[in-house]
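Figure 3 (text version): structure tokens given as input.
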């Protein structure tokens, strides 16, 4: 590891500035950080033309974590040198930054020459332990959705040692309003890349890369910001599905399965995937889980991250079908879960009814106030919302009001202490294959 002392005389201008020079195998750039000495109240980091801000009273550890998140590197305090009260970054010369992926888009990973498995193995004790990591794909202009998701379920998801949720945005989606939201909620992480419909796959792969680098998670859920996730019920069911006592190496791929989906090659179609057809010659997709919410165990996610760093996975425009394509050669437990409603059509409300109301006293005799019925779930959803086999994902809730309504309904369900020890019918065949499920040991966290 080489300390970059030679950089300081050339770049240093004032005592209240720190300049970071980061050297990679292929590119070199400089990051400039402004702060007042001692208190470190504000940082502005300029990275390849983009600016990030860290506001408020910050510890040195917060600075280290912040830079680690922004540069996508495993940065620790050991990588920093100290000159008086000024800090600069010291990185190993073996760090590699890959500029491009196979379709000439900007790479989202910064991978050490050490294999991904050796990075994660042996460092598990240094990572935050959690059973479930949830990556919520979001974007610019969807702050109203994120606020509703936090109200409905994401805030309750933040349970140390059990589950953690993060919203995923591209760094070119950061506005002043998003920066304020990041500072207030501390639950948004950024991925490098262009913001297009095809960028959903980049964000999904980033969910796995971020989760395996920052958490010792057993399972990783990818979902969207228009989906309700019943994380407490999901955690209970995942524990029942574990084949090993520590829930590691579970080989799990779970969601609502699409079987033999047709590959669309019509020009201009939203789901055109001529690239998949040309690459595989197949007119139907490998079975895959619908993109509104699906779970991979961490061993599968680590394998995908490792393959991407070594040989580059084939990217196609359809995110969920591509994930199924990537894992189809793996010997996985593929669970088609009937209570993971992650389809692409709107969920699960009756149409609002409009009917004549009472006469408006101050209006002409022909004027009436129209009454509109409140939200009502359809019969199937209503029957399962508080059952012993509840819905664990409801996707395509097309308004923040509906998201909050579902969240309130689930929160109002009576808590049955024995439910945590029961095996829901949706997963009973899979639990039976494990043998002794150990249901009596499952707690109701």
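Below: residues designed for each position.
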């Amino acid at each position: 590891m080489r300390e970059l002392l030679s950089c300081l005389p050339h770049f240093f201008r004032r005592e209240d500035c720190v300049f970071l020079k980061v050297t990679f195998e292929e590119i070199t750039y400089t990051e400039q950080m402004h702060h007042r000495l001692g208190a470190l109240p504000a940082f502005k980091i300029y990275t390849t033309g983009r600016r990030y801000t860290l506001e408020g009273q910050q510890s040195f550890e917060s600075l280290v974590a912040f830079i680690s998140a922004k540069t996508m590197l495993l940065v620790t305090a050991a990588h920093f040198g100290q000159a008086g009260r000024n800090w600069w970054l010291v990185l190993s010369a073996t760090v590699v930054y890959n500029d491009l992926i196979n379709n000439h888009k900007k790479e989202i990973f910064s991978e050490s020459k050490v294999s991904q498995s050796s990075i994660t193995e042996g460092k598990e004790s240094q990572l935050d332990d959690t059973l479930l990591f949830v990556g919520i794909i979001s974007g610019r202009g969807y702050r109203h959705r994120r606020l509703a998701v936090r109200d409905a379920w994401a805030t309750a998801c933040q349970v140390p040692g059990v589950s953690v949720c993060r919203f995923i945005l591209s760094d070119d989606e950061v506005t002043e309003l998003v920066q304020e939201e990041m500072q207030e909620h501390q639950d948004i992480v950024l991925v490098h890349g262009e913001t297009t419909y095809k960028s959903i796959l980049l964000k999904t792969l980033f969910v796995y890369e971020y989760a395996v680098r920052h958490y010792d998670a057993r399972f990783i859920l990818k979902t969207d910001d228009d989906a309700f996730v019943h994380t407490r019920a999901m955690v209970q069911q995942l524990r029942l599905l574990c084949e090993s006592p520590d829930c590691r190496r579970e080989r799990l791929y779970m969601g609502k399965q699409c079987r033999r989906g047709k590959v669309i090659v019509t020009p201009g179609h939203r789901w055109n995937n001529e690239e998949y057809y040309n690459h595989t010659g197949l007119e139907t997709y490998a079975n895959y889980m619908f993109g509104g919410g699906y779970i991979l165990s961490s061993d599968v996610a680590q394998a995908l991250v490792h393959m991407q760093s070594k040989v580059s996975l084939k990217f196609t425009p359809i995110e969920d079908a591509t994930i199924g394509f990537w894992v189809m050669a793996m010997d996985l437990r593929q669970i088609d879960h009937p209570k993971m409603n992650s389809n692409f059509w709107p969920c699960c409300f009756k149409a609002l009814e409009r009917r004549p109301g009472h006469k408006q006293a101050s209006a002409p005799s022909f004027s009436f106030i129209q009454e509109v019925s409140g939200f009502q779930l359809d019969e199937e959803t209503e029957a399962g919302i508080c059952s012993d086999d509840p819905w664990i994902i409801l996707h395509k809730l097309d308004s923040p009001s509906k998201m909050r309504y579902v969240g309130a309904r689930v929160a109002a369900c009576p808590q049955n202490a024995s439910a945590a020890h029961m095996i829901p019918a949706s997963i009973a065949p899979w639990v039976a294959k494990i043998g002794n499920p150990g249901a009596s040991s499952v707690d109701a966290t």
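Residues 1-58, 80-125, 436-445 have pLDDT under 50 and may be disordered.
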